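The following record pairs a protein chain with its ligand, protoporphyrin IX containing FE.
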Amino acid sequence: MANSLFVVFNNSLERCMDAGGFLAAFYRSFLAQDPEIAAKFGNTDFQKQVDVLKNSLIMILMMRTHGDVPEYAGMLETVAERHNRQNLDISPHLYVVWFETLLSTVEAFDPQYDDEVREAWKDVLRHGIKFMVERY
Ligand code: HEM
């Protein structure tokens, strides 16, 4: 990678955010993939949800680039616990759909999407998903 993972991912996330409606479009598409997913979000306030997802993407990026230190991993521990089998019960197969949907939303929203951007997103998202699934 010519640029650091941090810079490539962070700049892409900012371009997606600047394009407007990025995470709302992601959730629209994610919920449309599977009735099981839509059912999980039956009572969700999506205005709040897009903010918490944006924050957790940044935390995953920090963890990926600085290690699973408590400043970043702590917040994700709480998120992972909320998603585990005792709570929201988000089964590991749903993370595959989450990953694919987020990648295709980035492709649609980032005007500078290319191989380097795609690989940066894959790398960061895989790291976050591994963290969540290990705590299921
Ligand atoms: C690495 C992947 C994921 C991240 C970083 C993530 C992040 C988050 C965060 C930060 C929250 C808010 C937690 C809170 O308010 O306490 C949340 C809630 C939620 N997530 Fe995820 N999530 C991920 C994957 C998934 C997947 C695959 C599903 C599958 C359906 C899912 C379903 C939900 C649901 C149903 C809620 C609760 C919404 C509500 O409060 O009504 N998440 N997620």
